[in-house]
Amino acid sequence: MNEVHPASPPLVGASHGLSSAEAAKRLALRRRIRPRGSLDLPFRRHLRATLTERLVLLLLAVCVIYAILGAFRDALVILGVIVIVVGLETWTEWRASRAIAALSVLSAPRALVWRDQRLQEVPPDELVPGDVILLSAGSRIPADARVLEADDLLVDESLVTGESQPVQPRGRLGEAAELKAGTHVLRGRASAVVTVVGEASTLGKVAAMVAETRGQRTPLQRRMAELARALLVAAVVVSLVVPLIGLLRGQNPRDMVLTALTLAFATIPQELPVLVVAVLGLGSLRLVKRGAIIRHLGAAETLGATTLVCTDKTGTLTENRISLTSTVTAASVVEGRPGAREQIDRLGQLARLASEPPTGGDSRLADPIDGAVWRATTAGWPEPPVRFGFDSARRMASGLVQLGDDLVLGAKGAPEAVLVRAHWWRTGSGAAEPLGSDLRSQVVAAASELTAGGARVLAVGSRVIKGRPLGGPSQLERDLVFEGLLAFSDPLRPEVAQAVRELQGAGIAVTMVTGDQPATAAAVARAAGLGGPTFIAAQTKAWSDAELATHASRGCVVARARPEDKLRIVQAAASSGAVVAVTGDGVNDAPALEAAAIGVAMGRSGSDVAREAADLILADDNFATLARAAAEGRRLYENLRKAVRYYLAVKLALVAVTFVMAVTGRPLPFSPLQIVVLELFMDLGASVAFVNQPPEGDEMRRRPRDPRARIIDRRMLAGILAGGLTLAVLCGVTYLLGLRWLGVDAARTLALASWLTGHAALGVVMGWERRPIEPRDLLANPAMLLWAGAALVFAAAILAWGPLQVLIHAGPVPVTAAVLVPLAGLVVPLWLEALKRWRSR
User: Fold this and answer.
1) 397-414 pLDDT, tens per residue?
2) pTM (2 decimals)?
3) Residue 806 and residue 708 in one domain
């Protein structure tokens, strides 16, 4: 048998670390030696990538051809458009990448470090050699460090070394153990002094090798790329067929070559991949303001499809302000009389033996239950040299202390776990008498009465050990004396009930999975508004995965759950087709977080392992934040759909009106230079205006979307056709009337003006898909207003300002036409708005 060894002293470090002034001085010196990368480097990288895109090169080719043909003025105009298009796309992608980089910084683990004789949380890149850091189970080691003190330390080094088996760090003879940056503490705790930080650390060297590696595209990005490739074929066909028809009908060959190039530029859907990055990246940054930090872009798109939330209880639904509210001695339970003061004190001291003290007095490093015990009791007995921490197999914790000639074991845990090991009970006189089946029933009934009110109940037991103790907790935690019950309360967060109603109203089931007793879990579930039955995890083991998924997807409570139970629930629900979001905060929750479509970790109480396995981090540990994130996730996907719908509609309009005029033998409605100008406004509308579109207000009153559904469904296709044909008919009719009465140049002027006003009105109308537009909606998206206003101003300038008409190959038009055409452009698309209003009635 293994002997019981004394535990290490409290881990407060050999010193209390550096002062803030000294740390700042060392940090400044390190950054002078190895400065951070300049913020403009990513912008230059994005600019270089944009300039080398095929379509930008195509537009540059058009510009060069114009210059070769001697049309220098046209070449300069196109060059100006190139500058605007490249600048816009580069700025959009750079801004989105900055947002994603900011999310990475926000979601990075924080290091607990001693500064100015107290514990502080700092980002890992602000650590300096000489800092003293504290590590506990679940912590990620933020820098290479040397162990000062350790207690039962077990480290997972697989991320750095590839070794699958965890190790107990040991130093060479006469030297302290070394810890590697990027590894994880699986068990125990330690204090360590930082030796190497940043790029020079073990993890930094690995990171440097992959710094230029591009991340994988999200499923939505892949689907959009597939859509873009499919549409590319149609665009190329149009850009070749239209000029070919023009050549066969005797059009100028030079104009047809330029038309082919500019049509290819205008019709190929090059903005679709950019839209995904812009909408998801910038939308994810908005989520941060709501307390939800997205770690992967894929999580932002999946949020809107979530159908099931598996949540824990403590700290998520409740406030994680656990306090000891009731102490019931064994005599009170059995004899029905108040416990004597000395027995209540004994009960507290025994529970204190089995509770880990807050490290350095900091409550963040204490288990909430243990912290509540320490706050409610005062030191009376000596500090135990040996403690056996809680684990999910034993479902209890214990501590061993020398009192006089005897060793006394104090144990606390789940009532059933303590009772199964107890054979005696403490009477009012202090004696120990046998604990029979009738008395056990009384204890169970007393515990059930406490849990029915929502309290978490633990039982306390003791054992006097004669002689030298041998073995581990399984040998020592037996033949106990039942001492009494402790009741702990953790109030429900006030906003949880409303958040649960919102999720359920949005078709998202909520299932609570907790390690608490069934009665406690059921009481909290009732207060939170969670429907469905309450099950004990043990009884679910006999269910098939299909049965388990059915219960979970309808919403239920699973009590007395272990990490493996939580993982099975998530896997079963996912296998049945559910899109599962699961919350967790501990090391043992990491498998369930990985298995879920959306792993949600706690930002305050969660371990580093849980946060790194998660896709979404709740900065405030608040369940209501998850409901807000789900609403924002739906808004992101809707904005992307609206942007794509509008973008393809205006592309369709351009292709349709150009193709019809070519087939019927008429001059093309837009010159190559004018097509370039139209493309500029199309890109501005799709990539800027729709990204910032506000929600319509019914996001959380509809069923979740099917993640397997194509982005272009029947409803969206109908919108594309309706919007595209509306704009095509508007421009086509305007052009034909102008061609008949005013000539080609004036007709093109009218077509261009009707396009600019019509596509702006169409963008505003298509910004709201399911409900009519209200006056306040027009002010809710300043980007949309600015873009639409710029299009209207440019249209007015084309109609009224001669120099601009000359610059873009337009001609003067009569005043009557100059007034009626833009007015028609604003009015005609409103039939779509009238249709929405009719449907809403």
Assistant:
1) 999 998 888 889 999 999
2) 0.70
3) yes
